[in-house]
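quick one, 58 residues, struct below
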Amino acid sequence: MSKRTRSAAPSTGAALPTVTVCRGWCCGTPKVPALDHTVQLRDLRGSLDGSATVRVTD
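---
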């Protein structure tokens, strides 16, 4: 049994994890011609909506 009292328990849920997508230097370039980076980012954000935060970095 936990020794923590109910009042000490966090009142909100855990913070969402963050997924970082690199779009700088070579990561955002079309190295693979069939890959649409804009669509890939949109799909990633859509699939992780509510379960993770997606951020873009250079």
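The first strand starts at residue 18 and ends at 22.
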